[in-house]
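It is time I had a proper look at our fold encoding. Can you supply me with one protein entry, sequence and fold together? It will help me judge whether the discrete encoding reads sensibly. Leave the record below and I will have a look:
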Amino acid sequence: MPEGKLCNRTPINTEEYLSEVLADTGGKQYYKEMEELDVDVEKLQASLKATLKSRLKTWLEMCAHCGLCADACFLYEVNDKDPKQVPAYKIQSTLGEIVRKNGNVTNEFMRHCMDVAWSQCTCCNRCGHYCPHGIDMGVMFSYLRGLLNSQGFFPWELKIGAGMHRVYRAQMNVTEEDWVETCEWMEEETEEEWPGLKIPMDVEGADIMYTLNAREPKHYPEDIAEAAILFHLTGENWTMPSQGWEQTSLSMFAGDWEACTMQVKTVYEAIERLKPKRVVGTECGHAHRATVIEGPYWAGRPDGLPPRPYIHYVEWVAEVLRTGRLKIDPAKRLKRPVTLQDSCNYVRNHGLADITREIMSYIVEPEYFIEMADRREHNYCCGGGGGFNGVGKYRPQRNVALRKKRDQIIETGAELVIAPCHNCWDAIRDLEEEYEIGIKWSFLKPLLIEMALVPDHLKPKEEEE
């Protein structure tokens, strides 16, 4: 079968097509069609010729098979040190074979590559951190995902996710109307407790433009309200755009580079339109990677930077704590065992480990902050990054992957895990549901609001009397 009705080489670009794929519960028809999907060898060869440059070729050829990447990989560890889980083996036996055979591969082999690319690697790049030759395995697996995507061999949920970005410019079906109405609703909900609080939309020239994760308006609207409360408490001149507010990229997980470009350009267009002094992104690791680290290159920006300075939420939080614009009530500092999850995407891949620990110094009593044994840039993936959390086909493998983070947390004795990243937050929530180790988990926002000293002029009138 050249191509199926649902599983094919055609991206989702319309609501009608998106609805069709969504209606296929669990991707049953999608994966059945995939078993018969032809490999377009000529197209694959053309892709390799156009995109396989000297860096990737060199990395494939220079691997010394030293094995240092093995012990660096949490998936190797939790799967009983299976040699097939060694990162070097995983990439050489998939991408390496595609290159060596110049794209002359079978359907069965491509489905095997899909399983490896999305259930045996989260692109956390911890292995690359330890490679003596500096081989960036995360980049190599991302490249492999792109090849597989172009041939139609990628998970059902990620076809939907990339399609959402193409249709709605958000990872979920949140329309502009839905978005604006959700913000208005959250403003109304907080009005009584926080008099004068506004959620400003499309204000030009603000000090801050705030962007976020579509999961927030879709499932966690209170997160929008919490961000607004903290901006209100600190007296920020801020705004959010009605278009270009979503900074995440399931397209990146899917290997759909065209959709990645479409998404990040939408955010950058909002920045150019509103001309804020800078942009702050929500507590999300891959969103930061997609808009700040990778995004400028997808958008073709020669300086490798977004249109305005663009910082992660933890950077903004550390700044307002450091300058005293947000003051913490000493009596409310955390006095129970607490640990911190380091997000791969903004700690290992963007060096913000010191920033997050600065925040901990303000909100946790020193004797109660317990570091994981492997921490900072050496920390392990939460177990659900790179799209792993959201693919039902690979849920059993994902649940095994969570064991590394489970063991790390148990070893600290922590009762609370602070996770300033959506994927990490979700993975740790699922970890607790799966293994019941008796922990709580939290973003920064609710903790900060609970601890903040509120100036008298921002309190409801009855509290002033």
